# Entry
Amino acid sequence: MKSARRDVSSAAPLRHVYVHYPFCAHKCPYCDFNSHARRERDTDAYIDALIAEARAWQGLVEADTIFVGGGTPTHATPKQLERYLAGVLDALAPRDGAEITVEANPGSVDEEKADVLRRVGVGRVSLGAQSFHEHHLQALGRIHDADDTSRSVEVLRAGGIERISLDLILAVPHQTLDEQAADVERVLRLQPEHVSAYVLTYEEGTLFTRRMRQGRLPSPCPERELEHLHLVRDALSAAGLVRYEISNFARPGAESRHNLAYWRNADWLGLGAGAHSHVRGRRWKNVDDPAAYAQGIAETSDAPAWHEEVSSPWQLFESLMMGLRLVEGVDLDALHQRYGIDARDAHAAALVRHEAAGFLEHDGARLRLTAEGLDVANAVIGDFVPDVPAPETTAT
Ligand code: SF4
# Structure
């Protein structure tokens, strides 16, 4: 994607970077991420490629936020972890005070890795706790137990990681509300600065979805999912973790700046296998397979699978789709200025309808979902789909 680098070379530096580390110890049956188990033989070539791709963007990025996700970024050995994080971060020139996050799984961090994280400048770790009940962790195919989560938090805190986010999966099959409440209690005992609480979704192509279609797992039940989400929302709020996005809660000032950039539809660069980038209306994705990605980068310093140009109506839609997930909502004047389309004209009927139903509210130019609206966000947002052809993807 040399042209993408050329396109941004004369513009302001990119501020937000996602880095993908696609390897895991084990593939979880509900997971549709680009993650691969038992691919240790590919790791070193992959790390070489990741550093090379970051260096190819050197000078075009001055990062305010960097998010290293996966996969399991801490599945690497301490040496590999240090090599790829130091190499990538050096090329991305994080600015003073940059938020640098690494995802980890309980059991995949020890003192040595925590020390590596702190030394290379990581200040935030997002830990996939998911549940504190052994039978649910087993059903989810997770290979850690609840004590691993507590130990990992201790190790990370002792190693100097200042901000910890814990992930929970809600409304797991057969999970009771009492179990959900106990999970939140365990989370709060660990005093995280941030919690992400997503309802389990059945994604296409996963083992969970196959089992659900065979009747071996219960079908999704929106009412039950909302009960679990409300319970978690209320317990976290009572403990001072403020809901700032449908599924995300933080101590004031500890919101994920990187994810806020996504929800505010900022430009971002994605590095690594399967990573998406979105820069000034152009979107592209790298090839998914880690070995094919490494080969592409080694041969041509690029590994794109496809790219597309996103028209203004679709950029406006994406800004509404992402921004309305935030409790702060969106600034319609700012979107009008950015895309040359006023949502108040383009979507007048839908806005009136959802305001009358109590799902949307205005405060000057700011539009946001009400508490009731957040419960039906997808249905409301679906009414803002533009009446023009969707972006056309071109294979590269
Ligand atoms: S550890 Fe995370 S990324 Fe890896 S397979 Fe499980 S859910 Fe997917």
The radius of gyration is 21 Å. The pocket of iron/sulfur cluster is lined by residues 24, 27-28, 31, 33, 35, 70-72, 105, 128 (CB under 6 Å). Residues 320 and 392 are 20 Å apart (CA to CA).
